[in-house]
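Forgive a beginner's question, but might I ask you for the amino acids of a protein and the tokens describing how it folds?
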Amino acid sequence: MDDDALRAEIEHYPNLVSWFQACCQRYSDASAFTCQGATLTYSELDERSSRLASWLQRSPNLRPGDRVAIHLPNLLQFPVAVFGILKAGMVVVNTNPLYSVEELRHQFVDSGVRAVITLANSAYLVEQVLPDTEIREVIVTQLADLHPFPKSDWINFKARHVRKIVPRYKIPGATSFRKCLRQGAKYSWRPVEVERHQLAFLQYTGGVTGISKGVMLTHHNILANICQLKTVMNQVCIPREEIAIAPLPLYHSYSLILNGMLMLEDGAHVVLIINPRDTEGFVKELSRWRFTVFSGLNTLFVELCHNQDFCALDFSRLKVTVSGAMSLTRFTEGLWIEVTGSPIQEGYGLTECSPVVAVHPPNEARRDDTVGPPVPLTEVKVIGSEGETLHPGEVGEICVRGPQVMAGYWQQPELTQAVLQDDGWFLTGDMGTLSEEGYIEVIDRKSEVIRTAGFDVYPSELENVIACHPDVLECAVVGLPDDELGEVIKLFVVSRNRRLTVKAVRDYCRERLTSYKVPRQVEFRASLPKTNVGKVLHRDIRDEELARQVKKKRHL
């Protein structure tokens, strides 16, 4: 598809709602989402989201443009909530259900949400922050609210009274999700005039600047990224035939767009995984499906490939595996191919780019350490410290321009101005190179580059090398202040061999890295801190080490 035809396709739908309804009409009888044995067809997804939209529209406390938070794990209620909110002309604010009270309060207050849809298991957290927010409607759902009766009641009863995983809460005026759908069914949903450049999502991220803020994504941004990705995925995906496994949470932009949006374009059947960290339960669910599309990230791939039951699964229909959210190591890619026979198509993106910037074409072998070429209608350049455009192969900051680039940060004009230039170029904060053919290599976050003895060292480069050690399960590299060198390199290792020594690790590094890149310090750990998606938190590790150094100096 040429650029003009792609632009026309993006402009074909005035907003995400019209696109969604077209998908539901096209594949009305096909299965859309499955979770814990229950399935919604496309027509059922359309109907239930319309019921929710009708209820939201008739609330005296809400109006079009209001922000509504979704505080849920990967349940069937999640896609119903997303499209119900959009149909009501409101804005989706995806919220991590594992957030602490402080994190929840910050996001709800900053975004000014007027309503929240939460799981009964997490409602006690919402209860604690309500007095500090503008929330006027609380909708509480239970795990199996969209399962057929009587299974739904049994699962919900078991969760509350047998497993006792629903802490007590008291939210006066809260409405049950089921009641919303019942009451919403009594009225017709009234379509709302929503223009393509109006806000669709406030997607919170630490992102480029390291502090949590709302990324403003418009209907046009999301539609553009769906159409851009469609040109890539349609090389292998066939309408109505794909079964996609969604282990990553839909509140994360990567999974939201890939599994919650793009898969609908081809009428795929998406299997939602509530807790991928429960490897035994996850693999048991996988055994029920001859899946064709799998999405994940480096740490998840490694964990699965070390599970015997996973390795014994049937991967004969797996067409494409997509990796995102963090760098994919060569070791992990080789391990995944050995186990599944499926190459991994690594992508690159940021929440600020809706989120995908580049991805390897499914039918093409990976080129060196690149993340592929930019998706159509996307310009990429690499700039130096003075803002000058660098030549192919030179390392600098990656900049992106395209229809998927955000409108800005919510109520943060200074931050927006710092990264989004007047001519549309977005400064990603990622260091990398651009090849002659236009393939992107992402080296590391600009903020995580280690400067030691006058040299720049990229943690991801070291981690890629060290992860290939047969006894290393996972690792992380950070830079710590040093009076002599500026920064000293410290390596954290999770090993599957208790006999692995610091000397053995450093000797391994000396054989494969130039001297100034060899970690001066090595520490073995049982685990590394990660986000709920599974991305290693380098910043947390470094902050912890800095705090330890300060404490140590105080005792000298």
Observations:
- DSSP finds 18 helices and 25 strands in the chain.
